[in-house]
Amino acid sequence: MKQAISELIARSIVTDKKIDALSEQVSLNTQKIDKIYVTQRLVTDHDTDIRMIKKMLTQ
Fold first, then answer.
1. How does pLDDT run across 7-47, given as a tens digit for each residue?
2. Rounded CA gap, 28 and 42, in Å?
C-alpha cells in the first residue's frame, strides 16, 4: 500500500512539472502571437502609407 502511494506521489510530481512546462510554453506562444498581430498591423499600415505616397506622386 505504501509503495502504491509513493508511486502515485511520484507520478503526481512528474505531472505537475509537465503542467508547469506547458503553462510556460502557452505563455510564450501567447506573447509570440501578440507580436505577430502587431507586426501584421504595422505591415498593413506601411502598405497603406506606400499606396498614399504612390497616389500623391502620380497625381
1. 888 888 889 899 999 999 999 999 999 999 999 999 999 99
2. 21
- For residues 56 and 49, give the distance between their C-alpha atoms in angstroms, rounded to a whole number: 11
* Spatial distance between the Cα atoms of 15 and 7, rounded to a whole number of angstroms: 12
Count of CB atoms situated within 10 Å of the CB of 27: 10
DSSP string of the chain, one letter each residue: -HHHHHHHHHHHHHHHHHHHHHHHHHHHHHHHHHHHHHHHHHHHHHHHHHHHHHHHHH-
Which pTM value belongs to this model? 0.65
The CA distance from 54 to 45, in Å, is: 14
All three cell numbers of 53, joined, read: 505616397
